[in-house]
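Table S2 (text version). Query chain:
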Amino acid sequence: MPIAELADFLTRAAAEGSGFSAAKSPSLDSEARHVRILEDDRIVAIGAYAIHEHADGSSHAALETVVERSMQFPAFEEAVVAATIAIVDEAVPVSAWSQRPSLDRALEGLGFTPSRSL
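Corresponding structure-token output:
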């Protein structure tokens, strides 16, 4: 899929108040670090992750999703998260950043538990 379509999706999402953090944006340059969910050949969601290295030598994958407003319901959000987790190395623990109630419910359905709330 052309990069212009990715940029268009992210521009629309930003207009709706959604987008990736600075830490996840570089993941969009790597096909191995993000997934695009399409409906009728247009992007409706993207999941991406970044690897965070810790001082003790451990690491974890921190994931985020950007989902078109019309698709922000728990079942779809869960599918986007699951697709994103599927591209992370199984040996790497995964955390998620949520800014939407529908994503909170999806993460809960996948067994995630809140570790902090801002």
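Notes on Table S2: Helices lie at 3-15, 74-85, 101-109. The chain has a mean pLDDT of 88.
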